[in-house]
Every structure is written in structure tokens, then in C-alpha cells.
Amino acid sequence: MMKFPLLMLLLCALISGCQTTTKQSACDGFSRLTPSLQTSVTILKTDRPFANQIVSHNKFGAAQGCWE
Q: 49's torsion region: left (phi>0), alpha (psi -120 to 50) or beta?
């Protein structure tokens, strides 16, 4: 019965060294949304809340320095 706790301890020690060392950024996973003019007009006419979300997304990215 004592074999399993020892095995578990060894496995935990082994995987504890498996951590990432890269720094994360607020920009990870973001890119600026740039719909075409025709798409922008369609979105503005049919789904104003979504258009507002696109603007908010782009403003957030610019404020974080992800793009200009």
C-alpha cells in the first residue's frame, strides 16, 4: 500500500518542473478587427450591439498597445 503514495510523490515532483517561463501579455490572442466597408455597413444596419463590441475590442487593443 505504501508504493502508491511514493509513486504519486515522485510523479508530482516530476511534473512540478513542467511550467512555462514565457511572459504573458494582454495582447496574446488579440488582433485588430478590420471588416470591409460593405461588411461594416451591414453590421451597423443589422446588429448595432455587435458593431459596438468591435469598436470596444479595437479600443481595448489600442489602449493596451497591441496595435496603433
A: alpha
Q: Where are the alpha helices (DSSP H) in the chain?
A: 3-15, 37-46, 48-64
Rounded CA-CA distance 54/39 in Å is 12
DSSP-derived secondary structure for 46-65: H-HHHHHHHHHHHHHHHHHT
Section 31-41 average pLDDT:
95
Lowest mean pLDDT among 1-5, 6-10, 58-62, 64-68: 1-5
Q: What distance in Å separates the CA atoms of residue 68 and residue 45, rounded to the nearest whole number?
A: 27
Q: Measure the CA–CA gap between 38 and 63, rounded to whole angstroms.
A: 27
Cell numbers representing residue 62 in the block? 489600442
